[in-house]
Recover the amino acids of this structure.
């Protein structure tokens, strides 16, 4: 049973149709990415999923364990693009204040989370004096304090350096493993979507593809074997006729399902080529194939 499913969501702001038709399903324990360029409709979708914006049409269904909207917010954590914390309060005060909004969150839990997010050294520093990466860690710490089943992250890495991004993902992956946390991420960082269990590619208010990364790559961004040769016709004659081969300036290019499939091919034509190149498909290639444009 899906934790959450959305069917044919649509949302306009005046004449602007931000979300035209988005359906998606969030299964427990999974890491789901909504990938798309600026303005694709990701944040608007998240706002509808978390209940802060009502769709014009379409519906959202919750798992039976989350019977009504009042209960729903206890099961979710949200990290918004803009922080919702008080800059004048310290990190510890912000988290303690948040903890008081829930029953059963002990001081011990606040300290554990500070420790988990490596924030103890800045715990008594005002939030507004923190670096961007430290702030983001506090934002996420706030969002998971009440142990939500489902965490929404709206472009959490924008503007962060690679070390901070890696650190945040180490913590999130630990939470996924230890607490079975389900994550819904919006991003335009292709490398971030690469680790997701399932990806919805969104463009211009629509889901234009939805699948696992390996399946999306196989369909829209195959591994490509490029053969450098001065005798392309001869090489072609020596290869199975059903291979998807195209001519290039310097030889031939073959689309493959995976890199291992190149081995028998290379064995067949080894004496006829001067060199070869093997390139695995990327998430970038998927987006390019689907939309004809780069994501950023
Ligand atoms: N409150 C609003 N009023 C008018 N237009 C809006 C409003 N919110 C969003 N839009 C428009 O709807 C479209 C989708 O916006 P949305 O923020 O959902 O996209 P996004 O994919 O999250 O983009 P980004 O990655 O830049 O956050 C954009 O063209 C945006 O300008």
């Amino acid at each position: 049973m899906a934790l959450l499913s959305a069917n044919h969501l649509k949302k306009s702001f005046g004449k602007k149709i931000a979300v035209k038709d988005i359906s998606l399903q969030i299964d427990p324990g999974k890491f789901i990415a909504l990938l798309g360029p600026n303005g694709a409709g990701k944040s608007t979708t998240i706002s509808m999923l978390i209940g802060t914006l009502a769709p014009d049409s379409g519906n959202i269904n919750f798992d039976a364990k989350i019977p009504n909207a009042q209960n729903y917010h206890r099961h979710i954590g949200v990290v918004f693009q803009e922080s919702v914390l008080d800059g004048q309060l310290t990190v510890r005060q912000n988290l303690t204040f948040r903890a008081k909004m829930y029953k059963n969150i002990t001081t011990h839990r606040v300290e554990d989370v500070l420790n988990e997010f490596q924030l103890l050294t800045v715990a008594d520093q005002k939030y507004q004096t923190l670096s961007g990466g430290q702030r983001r860690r506090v934002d996420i710490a706030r969002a998971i304090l009440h142990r939500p089943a489902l965490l929404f992250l709206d472009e959490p890495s924008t503007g962060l350096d690679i070390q901070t991004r890696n650190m945040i993902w180490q913590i999130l992956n630990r939470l996924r493993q230890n607490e079975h946390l389900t994550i819904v991420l919006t991003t335009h960082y292709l490398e971030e979507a690469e680790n997701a269990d399932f990806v919805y590619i969104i463009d211009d208010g629509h889901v234009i593809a939805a699948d696992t990364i390996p399946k999306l790559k196989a369909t829209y961004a195959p591994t490509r074997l490029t053969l450098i040769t001065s005798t392309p016709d001869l090489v072609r004659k020596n290869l199975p006729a059903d291979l998807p081969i195209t001519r290039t300036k310097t030889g031939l290019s073959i689309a493959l399902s995976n890199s291992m499939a190149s081995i028998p091919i290379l064995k067949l034509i080894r004496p006829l080529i001067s060199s070869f190149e093997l390139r695995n498909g990327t998430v970038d290639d998927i987006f390019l194939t689907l939309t004809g444009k780069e994501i950023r």
